[in-house]
Amino acid sequence: MTVAGQLRVHLGAAPGVGKTYKMLEEGHRRRERGTDVVVGYVETHGREQTEAMVAGLEVLPRRTVSYRGATFTEMDVGAVLQRGAEVVLVDELAHTNVPGSRNAKRWQDIEELLDAGMTVLTTVNVQHLESINDVVRQITGVPQRETVPDEVVRRAEAIELVDMAPEAIRRRMAHGNIYRPEKIDAALGNYFRVGNLTALRELALLWLADKVDDELSSYRAAQGISETWEARERVVVALTGGPEGETLIRRAARLASRSRGADLLAVHVARNDGLSSSGGSHAHLVAQRTLVEDLGGTYHQVVGNDVPKALLDFARGVNATELVLGVSRRSRFSALLSPGVGTTTANGSGPIDVHLVTHGEVARGRATAKGENALSRDRRLAGLFVATVGTAALTALLIRLRDRVSLDSDVLLYLAAVVIVALVGGLWPALVAVVLGTFLLNFFFAPPLHGVTIASGENVLALVVFLVVAMAVSATVDRAARRTREAAAARAEAETLSTLAGSVLRGAEPLPALLTQLRETFQFGGATLLQLRPDAAPSPDRQHDPDAWRVVASVGRPLGAPGEGDAEVRVGEEVSLVLCGHPLAAEDRRVVQAFAHQAVVAMRQQQLSEEAAAAGPLAEVDRMRTALLSAVSHDLRTPLASAKAAVGGLRAPGVTFSAGDREELLASVEESLDRLTRLVDNLLDMSRLQAGALGVHPQPTSIAETVSMALDELGPDGRDVEVHLPEEFLEVTGDPVLIERVLVNLLRNAVRHSPPGSPPMIVVGAHAGEVETRVIDRGPGIPAQMWDDVFLPFQRLGDRDNGTGVGLGLALSRGLAEAMGGSLTPDTTPGGGLTMILTLVQVPS
Questions:
Q1: CA distances to 95, 609, 636 from 639, in Å
Q2: pLDDT at position 532 over 60
Q3: Could you please report the per-residue DSSP string of 24-47?
Q4: Could you say which residues form the signal peptide (predicted)?
């Protein structure tokens, strides 16, 4: 039986990182060690360094395939199998074979070689992996039709990441080491942009990191390793829903931040019956989950009745290195009876470091949380009544039946009375019944009668058993009653919160929808969200002072201050949810707190939206004011002064000009007036643009025709511009007149700054539903930190001669582009210079 060969994959983030070169390099190393190595298929793409690496290796002939009148070459799988080498080099794992080939995909060819016992070295780019193909298309705008199933790559015996920084890839591209010179500028402006390459690199690193994590988990499982391996720092913080949670989260976040790249995970252990055993609050958990996610962590919930075991199982499952817990909130008396979750977890943690964090709730107990689930006051009073009056009545009855009922029967009847008391009033009334029953049994029915001594040992045993059983039964019945009430409350809370989430998602305005849902659910007469005014002075009467509070939102009866309502839920020091109609029941407070926290989130989102909307127009008005002042003070004066000087010279008495001189002076006047006209037109257009009065008539427009018209507008300067248009017909949504004007402005700048012998270039490409028109020059360029200044009106960034323009063209061009739903952004030209990118929405073909 033939043993399957091994697959080694060289994974790259993008073309040109050197995958094929690395594969050939490894082939040479193996050949030098005496291994039989052949090249089954290598694509050099005309790269000199790659072709040089092929030299010295045996290259098997390819198979020629004819398809639709064209001839293609593919790997000859049969020839490779017949050659029977130990190691085969096969490039481009995701390649699709020409129809009529032995297999549809090259990875299927490779599987045949592996089945034959050969070791295969191959290459693949991350964009060809099936699982992330759609993500790559969204990032780059380029669909990848050739893909390979992730499982094929994951089965590889080894995956080597061939990594290269985006800037290094672009330098290789600019030097001609990846594509032919005529394709360099278009590639740099489209697929090989820095943002694209950075995103692809991160995808490759994350995909490979997942593969490494899977391998580590598989190895640990196969070897039966349960202890933690500190291959990567992971900090787990345990949350109960108590008020100390925020302190624990921030402490855990600080621990994670000390180890660069450490993961922060928060976990809450819930009972498998859905009830809470920690006295926690759902509202606290909601707020704490938000905090964890804001700090870059993840929130998890696991189910288990044994909290320490559940915590340790989760921590070991995620290979955690540190576990953060809060010191117990139980009372000191309770801590004497059992060690608590923190101590139990620390004792069984093994190599996981356990941090017990102190907080303000230590040793305060859980009375408040439990009290929310306790039986009502009326039930407890009824239980006490039954315990006293009922036990007295039972005693009177049994005294009359003393001759016909034995002591054992008396014990059973008193035990039944204890159960009834526990069902009616809970634990404490039942304990009263236990004490009374024990005393009455001893005094009236255990010989000697009417005394506290007991003559018979059996009677002593019966009374002791009664006492123990009665206490156990009363505690069990009370616990069952509590759990029943907790279950009903949990179900009601879940239904309410589910309705809350639905109302928020459906509502166009989440804040009023939240308050309306709260009011309807709990039958309040009104619900008002108040925020303390920043200028409100501290005073004892602030709770009743409407001037100190701002009404954020209100439904039903409006309230102006917290003191005007029947109930208040505070969120921080500045926000208060005030309710009117009836007091807030203790058992409803947790759910109302969840409403309040959600309302604060909606309020902050609303405030941020309002601030952003208000700041935009103010900034634009200020920018326009500055621009107009600059125009009046400098750029309007310059062409007027030139024209006036020329006219003054012509009218000067006693001066005779030749025909050539007169023509030159008149041309100077005309040029100055033309510049003045363009400036005034630009200023008017900028004013209309800012006022929203500029006429924009968007329509499907051919980008090729618009480029041609812009070049004609330039006149002689447009003849030397290099134009690279795609073969497909591209249309954009925009105003053709405004698009032409933008391109003319960009081309004038590019022509002005381009050195002799290096004319500007226009490159047009489409991706991700957009068309990019790049105007490229090889001039001095502009530092990246000054790119924003390029679009400020009347900024020429180094131009000092008055013939270079007024510096308004780029500002107007960006405004026109944005008015058409597009954008205008600068970029660096590889090798030096500036590239201006006009992006417009593509019309679907």
A1: 63, 44, 6
A2: yes
A3: HHHHHHHHHTT--EEEEE---TT-
A4: none
pLDDT at residue 118 greater than cutoff 90: yes
Instruction: State residue 610's pLDDT score.
Output: 76
Instruction: Characterize the bridge pairing of strands 119-125 and 526-532.
Output: unpaired
Note whether 721 and 759 are within 8 A (CB): yes
Cis peptide, bond prior to residue 448, ω within 30 of zero = yes
Q: Are 830 and 839 in contact (CB under 8 A)?
A: no
Of residues 126 and 142, more confidence is placed in 126
Q: How far is CA 543 from CA 171, 397, 563, 567, in A?
A: 66, 60, 5, 12
- The tokens describing 432, both together, are 């009263």
Residue 307 has pLDDT above 60, yes or no: yes
Query: Pick from 227, 197, 226, 232: which is nearest to 212 by CA?
Result: 232
Whole-angstrom distance, CA of residue 635 vs CA of residue 640: 9
Instruction: Give the separation between CA 697 and CA 845, rounded to whole angstroms.
Output: 21
What domains lie within the chain, and their CATH numbers?
A: 7-221 (3.40.50.300), 234-370 (3.40.50.620), 377-482 (no CATH), 500-601 (no CATH), 637-691 (no CATH), 699-841 (3.30.565.10)
Residue 331 pLDDT > 70: no
Predicted pLDDT of residue 41: 94
- Asked if 171 contacts 177 with a C-beta cutoff of 8 angstroms, the reply is no
Tokens of 442: 């001893």
- Of 156-165, 555-564, 599-608, 797-806, the range with the lowest mean pLDDT is 797-806
- Angle among Cα 480, 482, 483 to the nearest 5 degrees reads 65
Phi/psi class of residue 701: alpha, beta or left (left: φ > 0; alpha: ψ in -120 to 50)?
beta
Neighbouring C-beta atoms of residue 798, cutoff 10 Å: 10
pLDDT of residue 93: 92
pLDDT given at position 599:
82
> For tokens 């909307």, what's the residue?
613
Q: CA–CA separation, 29 vs 87, rounded Å?
A: 12
Handedness of CA 243, 246, 247, 251 (dihedral sign): positive
Residues 6+ apart with CB under 8 A from 508: none
| pLDDT at residue 797 greater than cutoff 50 | no
> Is it the case that residue 695 has pLDDT exceeding 80?
no
pLDDT in tens, 261-296: 678 899 988 765 544 445 556 667 878 888 888 888
Residue 439 one-letter amino acid: F
Percent of the chain's residues with pLDDT above 70: 78
Question: 3-state DSSP call for residue 446?
Answer: coil
Q: What is the mean pLDDT of residues 615-627?
A: 62
Angle 562-566-568 (CA atoms, 0-180°, nearest 5)?
45
Give me the pLDDT at residue 798, please: 44
**Alpha-carbon gap, residue 166 to 198, rounded angstroms:** 6
Could you write out the DSSP letters of every residue in 186-245?
Answer: HHHHTTT-HHHHHHHHHHHHHHHHHHHHHHHHHHHHHTT--S--TTS-EEEEEE-SSTTH
What pLDDT score does 632 carry? Answer: 53
**Which residue bears the tokens 């080597």?**
160
**pLDDT surpasses 50 at 369:** no
Q: Round to whole Å and give the CA distance between 534 and 437.
A: 64
Dihedral in degrees, nearest 10, Cα atoms 768, 774, 779, 783: -40
Q: What pLDDT is attached to residue 361?
A: 62
DSSP structure class, residue 384: H
State phi, psi for 712 to the nearest 5 degrees: -65, -40
The burial class, CB within 10 Å (0-12 / 13-18 / 19+), for 693 is exposed
Report strand pairing: 158-162 vs 119-125.
Answer: unpaired
